[in-house]
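In this supplementary section we document a worked example of the pipeline. Step one takes a protein sequence of length 78 as its only input; no multiple sequence alignment statistics are reported here. Step two produces a three-dimensional model, which step three serialises into structure tokens for compact storage. The input and output of this example are shown verbatim.
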Amino acid sequence: MIDIPLERLPPELLAAIIEEYICREGTDYGANEVSLETKMEQIKKQISRGDIVITFDQETETCNLLTKEVFQKNSHKK
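The serialised model returned by step three reads:
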């Protein structure tokens, strides 16, 4: 699994990866509904800060978003 630097992705591809992640993973915001656009902006900020890493798994040929801690833990296993 490798991390993909944010600046290497075109904005459309980044948006598609984030949207797919949100739809696949789902999130619980309690009683308040949060729009897809708001969720996407929140995740973009987390990626920009380095809290979330964009990854590519060569075996499955898929992208995913992982917390920095989970990515580092998985990277040290190999």
